[in-house]
Amino acid sequence: MNNEQKLLVQKTFEMVAPIADTAAALFYGRLFEVDPSLKPLFRGDLKDQGKKLMSTLKVAVHALDRLDALIPTVQALGRRHLAYGVRDDHYDTVGAALLWTLEKGLGEAWTPETKEAWTTVYNVLAKVMKDAANEVAPLSLRTPLSRRGSAHRLPAVKRPSYRPPMGRPSMPPGSRMPASIQALYGGASSQAAPSSKSGSASTRLPRISNPPTIT
Predict the structure, then answer these.
(1) Confidence band (pLDDT; 50, 70, 90) for 132?
(2) Pro residues composition bias: which ranges (predicted)?
(3) HEC profile for 69-81?
(4) Nearest CA to 101 among 41, 44, 28, 39?
(5) Where do the structural domains in the chain lie, given as residue ranges?
(6) What is the pLDDT at residue 174?
(7) CB atoms < 10 A from the CB of 70, how many?
């Protein structure tokens, strides 16, 4: 994900923002058309869900220039979505529905470059969410119900106690930065983090309240 792709995503999102309600309706209509089994994951009013979806997208898109604040927010979303019943394979369906919606909303502005930029940004952020969820989830909670036997309610997910300092992400001593985080920085080096705990403070991205079930 390079700077040109970030700027293109931000620019085209502003073109869709004025028709946010219509875009959200198109998204959910397409999502349920592709995979009707996802409907039970959305328990609330779809109009309200749509507003939350567009609000979450707005925060994420605007924060692409502040990755130090965006990363922990996206990781937290991934862990929460696990508790909602979201599996790894759902991200592909959501991504396809999102790209379809953007194509309809942008019209002629949906160029090959725009498609590539949105695909890259979505895939990177989705991987960050999946990696965060998989760190705290047993394999049985990441696989389809048909492969696990009977369905059961997902337990509440306890967040890991480790939180990296703000500024450029750092990892616990001796560990390496996940590939998904490296991708956010355009393929930064994955050298082991130093043992020093010092770090500069920066403004955290406001926590997203009541995020949509799937983003």
Answers:
(1) confident
(2) 162-172
(3) HHHHHHHHHHHHH
(4) 28
(5) 3-140
(6) 59
(7) 21
How far apart CA 28 and CA 13 sit, in angstroms, is: 18
Q: Which of 63-72, 139-148, 175-184 has the highest mean pLDDT?
A: 63-72
- Quick one: fold of 3-140? Globin-like (1.10.490)
Answer positive or negative: Cα dihedral of 93, 6, 67, 171. positive
Token look-up 């875009």 returns 23
**pLDDT tens profile 74-119:** 899 888 887 778 888 889 999 999 999 999 999 999 999 999 999 9
In terms of C-beta density within 10 A (0-12 exposed, 13-18 middle, 19 or more buried), how is residue 45 classed?
exposed
Token output for 67: 């990755």
